[in-house]
Amino acid sequence: MILIHEIQTERLVLRQWKREDFKPFREMSLDARVMEYFPSLLNNNESDGIASKCQALIDERGWGFWAVELKGSGEFIGFIGLHIPTSKLPFIPCIEVGWRLAYPYWGKGYATEGAVASLHFGFTNLSIKEIVAFTSVLNTRSENVMKKVGMKKSGEFGHPDISESHRLHPHVLYSIQR
Predict the structure, then answer these.
(1) In which region does residue 53 sit, left (phi positive, over 0), alpha (psi from -120 to 50) or beta (all else)?
(2) Which range of residues forms the domain containing residue 129?
(3) 62: buried, middle or exposed (CB in 10 Å: 19+, 13-18, 0-12)?
């Protein structure tokens, strides 16, 4: 049986997904502000598919893009964690750190807090040598989180799953070593 890891920070719990997380995740997936740097909003089936996949990968590995809740209230606010990308990115194989939070929780340092904890877990518990993060060159908010957690810009690339003519095709790549 796989040990399902849970991470606690000062204000957050990064944990396995629960069925009741799916509804607020659907709402996030339909929020144009949250999805601004993704090619499209997600319908309920697409959103549930992502949440189910995150849940299944954590069941399989014990870690992944964890559901995030606020410690005090237990309220679901999004996901943060580690992932093995499956797209044909020019720098695979790799492990990425990533996050997606509901809009009301932006600007409070939660993404940075959860990303720092995820990086520590990856380096300490998984003995990963390097962790990457990437986003559209337009997404300066996420790029700023990458900088805050100590990552350095490694370069730029065109995302293979996004049309070359699409405004989101150009991406930045950041990395950090153990």
Answers:
(1) alpha
(2) 7-177
(3) middle
| Within-domain flag for 44 | yes
CB-CB contact of 89 with 23 (8 Å): no
Q: What is the pTM of this model?
A: 0.95
Single-letter amino acid, residue 154: S
CATH number at residue 94: 3.40.630.30
Domain assignment present for 141: yes
Instruction: Give the dihedral of Cα atoms 71, 73, 78, 80; nearest 10 deg.
Output: 0
Residue 142 domain-assigned?
yes
Tokens of 13: 């719990």
Q: What is the pLDDT of residue 2?
A: 82
Give, as one character, the DSSP assignment of residue 110.
Answer: H
Token couple for 110: 């939660």
Domain count of the chain? Answer: 1
Asked, for residue 172, whether it belongs to a domain, the answer is: yes
Mean pLDDT across the stretch 71-77?
A: 96
Q: Three-state SS for 96?
A: strand
